[in-house]
Fold:
Amino acid sequence: MKSMNIKKAVLSLGVCATLVVGCSKGISDFGDINRNPNATTIPITSALLTNVQSLIGGNVWGNAINTTAGLYAQYMSETQYTDISRYAAPTQNWDDFYAGAMYDLQNIINTNSDPSTAGAAAEFGANANQIAIARILKAYYFSVLTDAYGDIPYSQALKGNGTIPYDKQETIYPALIAELKAANAQFTTGAAVQGDIMYAGNTTKWKKFANSLIAVLSLRMSKANPTLGKAEFAAAVAAGVIDANADNATIAYPGGNYNNPVYQYYVITQRFDYAVSSTITNKLTTLGDPRIDKYGNNTKGFPYGLTRADALAWQTSNPNFAFIFGYTGTPQTMPLSIISAGQMFLARAEAAKLGWTSENATTMYNNGVTAEMNRWGITNATAITNYLAQPTVALDGSAADNAKIGEQRWLAHYPDGLQGWSEWRRTGFPVLAPAPGAGKAIPRRIPYGPNEPLYNPTNYAAAAALFNSNSQDAKVWWDK
Structure:
């Protein structure tokens, strides 16, 4: 990867980084900062932060990487063009990450660190707090990329160093955990950060988010480096992770030009290529799970992995199938959650089953399912108790608990395909059948995009060779 850059990207980034918009897909001046962007060459860091956060929802649903992962996790089915769900190799570049949101985050860090610009940047919150938030979000973005691709440019990325080598995932993971710890330690009691549409500058909640991300990364190492994973998971929980829905890491969209990406996709762009997969609706139906009325606009899932001809024929006979969140019923302002309390309780249940903590697995599991139900507006205590009491749901201390926890974690991450696919790759739960007749296994990674061999051929070749010539069937480091 060329740092920041491909073709004309460096020039365009150099211009837009000094303006209100940053360089991330057209978000302009959300939040009145009362400044003429043409009157200064110093980046307006509050606008850059809003810019980045408004795009994070695409990592939950909407960007190419996540929709591909959502198909592999069988959260969704393709309704017309079914190549990816039948495992044709995707061709997805990561340029929008490095040259977009991650560039903006690095710009925030640089502007607040440089003595010549730090004073101006302090207008939008304490320098240290702005840097800490940007570091946390940058670590989150790197985690998204490495979970999708495996080895990626990390240690030398975003430094303007030209073409650079890829770092191994086994070194990236511990480095991300160290970065998140250092960011948490950097927070001060100074002025709250402006432009923060996740936590409004609340440093306590930011620390919980960082600790939660550490816990997620730690548990993902359960088979690749369980010694480090156990230690870091326990430390993160002790330091304080998200344990209430009020503290969820959530993007609340203001609407208008800043819509929920599901609404933007179905309503604004009028695309209907993705439906709720019958894999997940069948599971919800079997469990009697009330979230089935929340995940789509009805309970009829679209069969997964059909050929194009079969998909078109099926929808002709079954026109009233479910779309994500009910599409037209999805408000412009519907929030998307990156990490939730329920997801964290379920992760803690798995860690307890592994013997990583002294917490009670059943308590954590029940708390997790309850918090997830509540997050989706299901609050009837009796209904939740009855759901948890079902033999197919309740933990009983047997080996079957692993599958139950895995299934609930898969359900809890919907519609975040990358997280659901990652957990399936690591645990094997739930049991997913490949697309019928495809003659291929469910992919284990996303191949490097076509820009890499063009613009960073030597380093690309070295990395691709480690994944069986860039195969989508090769496993990333933690996928054992």
In short: The radius of gyration is 22 Å.
